[in-house]
Amino acid sequence: MPTPANDSSAAHAGACQQQFHLRWNHLFDPHVRALAWLLDAPDLLDPQAAQWQGKIASYADAGLAAWLSALEQAPEKLQALHSYIGSLPSTRLGLYAEKLMAFYFEQRQMLVAHSVQVRASKNDTIGEFDFLLRLNGDLVHWEFATKFYLLETGGGSLQPDDFLGPNLADSLGAKMQKILQCQLVLSQHPASQIHLSEPVASAQALVKGWLFYPDDDLPSPYALGVSTNACRGYWRSLSALQLDQSALYLVLPRRRWLAPAKIALGHALSAADAQQALSQHFAGDAAPVLLATLRAEDGYGLEIDRGFVVPDDWAERAAAQRHARMGDQG
User: Fold this and answer.
1) Which terminus of the chain is less hemmed in, N or C, by CB atoms within 10 Å?
2) Name one Pfam family in it (predicted).
3) Residue 203 maps to a domain
4) Quick one: pLDDT at residue 324?
5) Same domain membership, residue 260 and residue 141
6) Phi/psi class of residue 209: alpha, beta or left (left: φ > 0; alpha: ψ in -120 to 50)?
């Protein structure tokens, strides 16, 4: 049975696409590729960082490659995965990623329970267990998060809340405060006891994701507990974006944000077509767009870089959001 990993991923920061293609280029099904990324990508946060108090999980499965290959090559198993994902009531990326992980944990006979709501009364919800798992004979509680954060550096000294979600509704600081102070203590609440067959041996958060920086001269965020291996890309405002005229591109739908992209070359965009698609999008929508840069190989376009393209006023709004959070904390 798979066991939690003691060491962080060996993938070097900034090389997530290269590492992924080396290991998983033989996979074609988008759900299987997304699951491969969730299970094999570097941790977003450093499990050894003091501020996480030992509450960040890291995971490795020595048999993952064989298991994923068998999954993709067995039509009945692949259909089971597609049916499992098809039952989702929402298109939210976080729920999609969580559902993929639930399928994996269930198939690997680790899953005790998933998405268990804890209520003190009918109208008083205390919280929810993402996963109750059986690991090394113990009952453990894992919260699971897949996050995409853009670094806004206008605030001087680097703070966790400088890593903001693309739509500015979330930040690394706020998310981790909620996980550590609220979600991971759920098993200690009296109302949770009816859902637990035995005491929870440990409660940790498994956090995957991508970090996006405004330029190549990166500040060092690692004092904030970010993994040195965390997957990363860039972000640019629409007016500052300069596309490589010789490259191929793909605007990534939200469900394809997890794993590095692999598409038939016929679906790739030229730089001119990508620029036109971005201009049309921002003419009627302020939501940031995730753009993948591709290289051609054997009839496919393989992602070699990715970045968020944001409205021209995004940095100004991000700074205001950060200041508002600092004011609330003060």
Assistant:
1) C
2) DUF1853
3) yes
4) 76
5) no
6) left
Would residue 104 count as lying in a domain? yes
pTM of the predicted structure, to 2 decimals: 0.92
- CA proximity to 229, closest of 6, 15, 5: 15
Cα 22 to Cα 285: distance, rounded to the nearest angstrom:
36
Strands 248-251 and 269-270: antiparallel
Indicate the angle between helix axes 64-73 and 30-40, nearest 10 degrees: 170
Q: Which run of H or of E encompasses 325?
A: helix 314-329
The domain of 159 spans 3-233
Identify whether residues 130 and 66 lie together within a single domain: yes
User: In sequence order, what are the residues at sequence separation of 6 or more whose Cβ sits closer than 8 angstroms to the Cβ of residue 188?
Assistant: none
What is the Cα–Cα distance from 239 to 312, expressed in whole angstroms? Answer: 7
Instruction: Evaluate whether residue 243 is within a structural domain.
Output: yes
Cβ-in-10-Å burial (0-12, 13-18, 19+) of 216 comes to: exposed
| pLDDT number for residue 294 | 96
Assigned token pair, 211: 């970090």
For residue 244, the Cα-to-chain-centroid distance in whole angstroms is 27
Question: Is 28 within 8 Å of 72 (Cβ atoms)?
Answer: yes
Task: Check whether residue 69 and residue 143 sit in a common domain.
Answer: yes
Instruction: Give the pLDDT confidence score for residue 219 in this predicted structure.
Output: 61
Q: Point out the domain boundary residue: 189, 217, 233.
A: 233
What the block records as the tokens of 264 is 């038939």
Q: Is 140 exposed, middle or buried (0-12, 13-18, 19+ CB in 10 A)?
A: buried
Q: Using CA atoms, how far apart are residues 58 and 3, in angstroms rounded to an integer?
A: 10
The CA R_g of the chain, rounded to the nearest whole Å, is: 20
Structural domains of the chain, count: 2
Quick one: 73 and 173 in the same domain? yes
Beta strands in 152-264 (DSSP E): 163-164, 202-213, 231-237, 248-251, 262-264
pLDDT given for residue 124 in this prediction: 84
Name the token pair of 172.
């690394």
- For residue 319, tell me if it sits in a domain: no
